[in-house]
């Protein structure tokens, strides 16, 4: 059977490598469950070769002046923008996200971050500081690249995640071996080719393919200085654990169960729009989703009425029709997981099903594209009358499932919003900005929004608190995660401490 995309292999030494692996798997179009391409699992010896290619490239790349690195990375950003629609099409096939979304968000936000870090290092962002101690003595600091870094990505924003990791990594003078999720590998070698075309030297950006065991091999490899990981908390714990054995630097971008708090004075229309954005964009497969929607008791009826009316604006269907804004879930295992949570919500938690549920979406039976009937489509679903103890309220579902909870007082809602081991994101809707900042200041989360949800520009450092992660990506602080500090004390008077002087 001829598949729509060419096979994917490892990429190192500046080129696509032919496979030496006996094992391969297929990546699947989630809208139809049809295979898209064969992926050849990278063997341990080929992963060693990818790491060795990154090691060889490191001395010259880290010594390349930041302005020169910046010029090359800016060129890569321009190539990404020029190929936006072609790359977005690939991402739509691989992830099941509508083209209306991938063509306006996924590549755009990746290219923005690449341009941001190129400009940052080109403009002196890697300069250290000088501290004058005495007239004849001072300390200066330098920021030094770490070496070979591993990037391990999740499947929800494949090319964006690859760029959010590789952009600051390469800009700071490091080299990278990247492993995409086995569910969404198509972008990875295309990105490697784009970097090469822009002038990134061979070995600076490399790709290995495979499942968790390939990732695990990377995280324990002595040649790797840092692991930047995006994925589930449980996997992050394993990755951080094995990285700690080798005392590697880590950045952990993990899961969430964020609180979206509608304050009593909120504009209900705006709050409903915000809550929908916080739950149904990307079919709910966004780490920062505000899946616990806290509504004042007195607003519940009005909020739910407006919400149910607006749910009709969610349009599933042909993924390349620009009016489609809702796709399938990414894979069969993920589809089974989300369905099991919806079942649990109805049968065990006994929450009230306000919208959606388990039935096959009505549009699917009528759609002319028969192949869609084998895809991983679910209905956007809203539960209400939820309580904090319910499993659907406590655990990350990572699908289009909103839980509405009511509250009476601000102290109560803040305490309940914080009563989770996760702390990725949170947000409030209100017309009183003092009130907004007072509540935001009390929320235990690393990414917060006021009267909006989800935007994550290159300038904004993002990272989770508590079990949701370690460190940040993006913004000026995001660059610090890819360098180590060296402090040097200079004494021009030669004032060596005299503790050993003759008495
Ligand atoms: P997983 O944790 O299942 O996988 C993430 C990556 O880790 C994949 O490439 C996976 O490989 C790899 N992996 C699996 N096991 C290991 C291991 N033992 N050692 C090293 N690597 C391993 O996450 P998902 O892909 O399911 O992504 C969804 C999760 O990601 C959600 O929890 C979501 O909240 C989180 N996320 C967080 C973000 C943030 O910025 N905080 C952003 C986006 C998502 P493979 O899949 O190929 O088996």
From TrEMBL:
The keyword Lyase does not apply. Gene3D superfamilies: Aldehyde Dehydrogenase, Chain A, domain 1 (3.40.605.10), Aldehyde Dehydrogenase, Chain A, domain 2 (3.40.309.10). It catalyses: an aldehyde + NAD(+) + H2O = a carboxylate + NADH + 2 H(+). Belongs to the aldehyde dehydrogenase family. PROSITE patterns: ALDEHYDE_DEHYDR_CYS, ALDEHYDE_DEHYDR_GLU. Keywords: Metal-binding, NAD, Oxidoreductase. It comes from Lojkania enalia. The lineage of its organism: Eukaryota, Fungi, Dikarya, Ascomycota, Pezizomycotina. PANTHER family: ALDEHYDE DEHYDROGENASE-RELATED. InterPro entries: Ald_DH/histidinol_DH, Ald_DH_C, Ald_DH_CS_CYS, Ald_DH_CS_GLU, Ald_DH_N, Aldehyde_DH_dom. GO terms for molecular function: aldehyde dehydrogenase (NAD+) activity; metal ion binding. This is aldehyde dehydrogenase (NAD(+)). Residues 20-487 form the Aldehyde dehydrogenase domain. It holds the Pfam family Aldedh. It comes from the Eukaryota. The active site is at 253. Its EC number is 1.2.1.3. It is an enzyme of class 1 (oxidoreductase).
């Amino acid at each position: 059977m001829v598949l729509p995309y060419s096979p994917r292999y490892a990429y190192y030494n500046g080129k696509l490598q032919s496979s030496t692996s006996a094992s391969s798997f297929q990546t699947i179009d989630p809208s139809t469950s049809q295979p898209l391409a064969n992926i050849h699992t990278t063997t341990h010896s080929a992963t060693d070769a990818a790491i060795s290619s990154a090691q060889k490239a490191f001395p010259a790349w880290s010594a390349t002046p930041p302005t020169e690195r910046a010029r090359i990375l800016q060129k890569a950003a321009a190539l990404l923008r020029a190929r936006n629609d072609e790359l977005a099409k690939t991402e739509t096939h691989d992830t099941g996200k509508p083209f209306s979304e991938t063509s306006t968000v996924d590549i755009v936000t990746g290219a923005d971050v690449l341009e941001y870090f190129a400009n940052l290092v080109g403009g002196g962002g890697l300069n250290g500081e000088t501290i004058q101690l005495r007239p004849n003595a001072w300390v200066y600091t330098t920021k030094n690249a770490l070496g070979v870094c591993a990037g391990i990505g999740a499947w929800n924003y494949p090319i964006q995640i690859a760029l959010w990791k590789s952009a600051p990594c390469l800009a700071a003078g490091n080299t990278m071996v990247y492993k995409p999720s086995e569910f969404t590998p198509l972008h990875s070698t295309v990105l490697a080719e784009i970097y090469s075309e822009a002038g990134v030297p061979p070995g600076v950006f490399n790709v290995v393919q495979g499942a968790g065991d390939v990732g695990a091999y990377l995280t324990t490899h002595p040649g790797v200085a840092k692991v930047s990981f995006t994925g589930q908390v449980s996997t992050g714990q394993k990755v951080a654990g094995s990285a700690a054995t080798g005392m590697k630097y880590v950045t952990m971008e993990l899961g969430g169960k964020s609180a979206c708090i509608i304050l009593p004075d909120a504009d209900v229309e705006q709050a409903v729009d915000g809550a929908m954005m916080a739950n149904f964009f990307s079919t709910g497969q966004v780490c920062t989703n505000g899946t616990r929607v806290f509504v004042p008791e007195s607003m519940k009826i009005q909020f739910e009425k407006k919400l149910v009316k607006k749910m009709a604006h969610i349009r599933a269907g042909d993924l390349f029709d620009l009016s489609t804004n809702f796709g399938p879930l990414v894979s069969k295992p993920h589809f089974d997981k989300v369905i099991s949570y919806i079942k649990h919500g109805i049968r065990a938690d006994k929450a009230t099903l306000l919208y959606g549920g388990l039935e096959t979406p009505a549009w699917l039976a009528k759609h002319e594209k028969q192949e869609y009937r084998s895809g991983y489509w679910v209905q956007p679903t809203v539960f209400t009358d939820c309580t904090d103890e319910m499993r659907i309220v406590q655990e990350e579902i990572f699908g289009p499932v909103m839980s509405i909870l009511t509250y009476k007082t601000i102290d109560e809602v803040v305490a309940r919003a914080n009563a989770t081991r996760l702390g990725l994101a949170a947000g409030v809707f209100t017309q009183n900005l003092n009130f907004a900042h007072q509540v935001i200041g009390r929320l235990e989360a690393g990414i917060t929004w006021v009267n909006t949800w989800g935007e994550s520009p290159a300038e904004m450092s993002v990272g989770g608190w508590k079990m949701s992660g370690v460190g940040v990506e993006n913004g000026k602080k995001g660059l610090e995660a890819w360098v180590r500090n060296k402090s040097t004390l200079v004494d021009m008077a030669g004032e060596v401490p005299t503790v050993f002087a003759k008495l």
